[in-house]
Design goal:
The protein is mainly alpha-helical and 123 residues long. It folds into 2 domains: 12-75, Arc Repressor Mutant, subunit A (Orthogonal Bundle), CATH 1.10.10; 81-117. Helix content is 56%, strand content 5%. It has helices at residues 12-25, 38-45, 49-61, 81-100, 104-117; strands at residues 65-67, 73-75. It has a two-stranded antiparallel sheet. Helix 1 (12-25) crosses helix 3 (49-61) and helix 2 (38-45) crosses helix 3. The longest helix is centred in the C-terminal third of the chain and has 20 residues, at 81-100.
């Protein structure tokens, strides 16, 4: 949950940028997570669209998010090839699950079971 303190000395765009950066770096927002649109977040926070757009631009310049045109902005792999490969594999799996008619909850349970069954998985 992003919050902006209107009384802070820190500009609103920087408050947004810093909060999202912390969440991404702490893996609270995982690779591939779709962020709210600039317009939606600006409306939620009661800010100008350009304020949120600046925060997103700075996050993108830092390699923490990537914007895919009309598809939106997503948490980036930040140059980590393993995380990028996992993101691509997850996208392939998601498309397969949809094609096979497997609902979201079951698809997630299948992944959780597969990870749990792997002896190398961290608990």
């Amino acid at each position: 949950m992003i919050t902006v303190d209107a009384h802070s000395q820190v500009p609103p765009y920087e408050q947004i940028r810093a909060q999202l950066a912390r969440e991404i770096q702490a893996r609270g927002l995982v690779v591939g997570t779709r962020l709210p649109t600039v317009r939606h977040l600006a409306t939620d926070l009661g800010l100008a669209v350009n304020t949120v757009a600046r925060a997103y631009r700075e996050l993108e310049e830092a390699g923490l998010i990537e914007t895919r045109g009309r598809a939106g902005s997503f948490v980036a792999a930040d140059g980590d090839p393993d995380r990028e490969e996992a993101r691509r594999a997850a996208e392939r799996y998601a498309r397969l699950a949809v094609t096979l008619g497997i609902d979201r909850d079951e698809a997630l349970r299948i992944v959780q079971a597969a990870i749990s069954a792997d002896p190398r998985a961290r608990r």
